[in-house]
Design brief:
Length: 220
């Protein structure tokens, strides 16, 4: 319900901004976007660091080696390209987040409806909510690392053809993520999101696995 309300607000803002024209704001240096700020299209270049704690942005594109730190605010779409980095936390709401090229996204909190990783990007998931689906299509260097424990993957669950992954984040918060799958993706190549996922258990789990291996060696 909260996401639907936010998307309605974004839609109203989009209509308002469209009536005023398709303004583009370019950032080449560090800047802050906060509560009360409203932007249509935002492009971030060079090694600029943009801290977003509130406000509304319809579409943001991160280029070069820029860094976007999000702890709040509402974005309809966010695209990370080239060598940019996205750090997502707090109660940030994003409709669609796309990772391209060699970009990196670190998600600690917030909500993303559609998360899409392409090419050879890197995605690190430590927390937060992916409300619709997680999609990965690229080379074998495209890696989505998920940090938590109690992972369970059901290839037949979910609504998007790629199964469903559930478990717990390291702060004990449960999560469930639908994965996108398509046997005939772009150019006929299949989209198998789960094949790009690396599950990283909490340190205690790794320790237990190590002790189990030691026990087996002793028995042998």
């Amino acid at each position: 319900m909260k996401t639907k309300i936010i998307m309605i607000v974004v839609g109203m803002v989009l209509m308002f901004l469209s009536a005023k024209g398709h303004a583009i704001t370019n950032f080449y240096d560090d800047a802050v976007i906060q509560e009360g700020d409203v932007y249509n299209y935002v492009h971030v270049y060079n090694d600029a660091i943009i801290d977003i704690s509130g406000g509304i942005v319809i579409a943001l594109g991160a280029y070069d080696s820029s860094i976007i730190n999000l702890s709040g605010g509402v974005l309809d779409s966010l695209s990370a390209t080239e060598y940019s980095t996205i750090n997502l936390s707090g109660d940030t709401q994003i409709g669609s987040l796309g990772d391209y090229d060699s970009s990196i996204t670190n998600m600690y909190g917030g909500t993303v409806d559609f998360m899409k990783a392409w090419n050879y990007s890197k995605v690190n998931l430590y927390g937060g909510i992916i409300s619709e689906y997680l999609k990965a299509f690229g080379t074998e260097d495209l890696v989505i690392s998920i940090y938590g424990y109690g992972f369970e993957y059901d290839p037949f669950a979910g609504d998007y053809g790629g199964g469903q992954l559930s478990g717990f984040w390291l702060d004990d918060t449960p999560f469930s993520i639908d994965l996108f799958g398509d046997p005939g993706g772009p150019g006929g190549a299949p989209i198998d999101t789960y094949s790009h996922i690396t599950l990283i258990p909490e340190p205690a789990t790794i320790l237990l696995l190590g002790l189990g291996g030691l026990f087996l060696r002793k028995r042998n």
